[in-house]
Amino acid sequence: MSVCRECRSMFRRQPQALRALRSISFVARPSHRTPFTTGATPLLRILQDDSKKRTIEPAYISRRTATTLPPPPVATTSTSHAIPDLAAIHARIDELANTVLKPVDNPIPAEQRTLYVLEQLESLIDSLQHAKSPTESRSPQKPTSTQDKQATATSALLGSVNARRHPSHLTAASLLDSIGTRAEQVLRHPNVFITPAILKSYISLQTQLHSPMSFPDAFDLYARKPIPRLSGSNEVTYQKANPDKVSSAIDTETAEKALSQAILSNNLPLAIDIITTTFSAPAYKRNKILRQALIPISGLAIAPLAAYTIAMQFSLIQTSMDPSQATTVAFAGIMTYMTAVASMGYIAVTTANDQMRRVTWATGVPLWERWIREEERAALDTVAMHWGFEDLARRGDEEGVEWESLREFVGRRGMVLDRVELMDGME
């Protein structure tokens, strides 16, 4: 195919980039394409082929633009908590409390309902304590026009009443106080029977609020609050509670949790009140005897019968003595052995003092009383460790009104704070 001179000279004067583009299109051109036999100029044919090439082969486009396109945006997720709806939370608090304070179906609310209310209030505390405040989550926006600036100034002066989602007096702190007040109202309601699970849930709720001031009253209510009873005419009657019975004892885990919160708040009178209403109560001592000493005492009670039975069987297999005499000798020997072993074990248990740090028993306190009141001594020991010096060399140098009142209280309870002969270097 012949090319005219004018077209050839025009093609030679093309820019270098157009020549490279033509060479790429010629190389990438499909081999099955039919020859171009029309009367169009060669330059026009090259440009047409190159434009078709760009629309047909997407791989060519990706190679040409891979170094110029910006990277795709990375999706980011916000881990901050959303702003709580304070008005909705306030309404939810009232709704939950009224299901117990003002029940519709039964004047005496069930334990499951009271537990559900306390658990829901505790979840609301968690959402309020971990949610971001509105000032942290809102970013200031700059006005973009004169009209926006005027609207911003007006809003600053008058306030946006329509955009307010809750009353101005509602804050996260006020709602937390409201939850604590409502929970205490539920516990003090005359028709609410306080069970160990309800008391434990209440202590957990107030601990999350860092408000332990109501713990002694709660423990006293648990032991002395009148028991509601539903009569046949759907009227509520109240039965007097016995604070000294075994079921009135405070659980050890609940008492230790309350004492720990009082120690963290650095409130010595509160800590002493908690110890007085929990570990020092007669019901706690009786409960400990029932839980820990009932089996050993029962074993000692049936020990003579078991020893006599074994002695009778021994007299039947021996031949050196009269059966009755052999029974007496065997019974005496078995009882002597059991008494000696039991006495040694009792003394070892009641005189153990490795766990004592600063509070020890005074001279003359019976061994049985030491064992039965060990939790009370351990609680006072924990309080003394917190209020005293941590340095071993400075122990005994504490002074002040609170420390002297603690020393006096420990002395009235038959204990000694920092016994001189037991301190380091005073042996």
Automatic annotation (TrEMBL):
<keyword id="KW-0812">Transmembrane</keyword>
<protein>
    <submittedName>
        <fullName>Uncharacterized protein</fullName>
    </submittedName>
</protein>
<feature type="region of interest" description="Disordered">
    <location>
        <begin position="128"/>
        <end position="152"/>
    </location>
</feature>
<keyword id="KW-0472">Membrane</keyword>
<keyword id="KW-1133">Transmembrane helix</keyword>
<feature type="transmembrane region" description="Helical">
    <location>
        <begin position="329"/>
        <end position="349"/>
    </location>
</feature>
<feature type="compositionally biased region" description="Polar residues">
    <location>
        <begin position="130"/>
        <end position="152"/>
    </location>
</feature>
<feature type="transmembrane region" description="Helical">
    <location>
        <begin position="293"/>
        <end position="317"/>
    </location>
</feature>
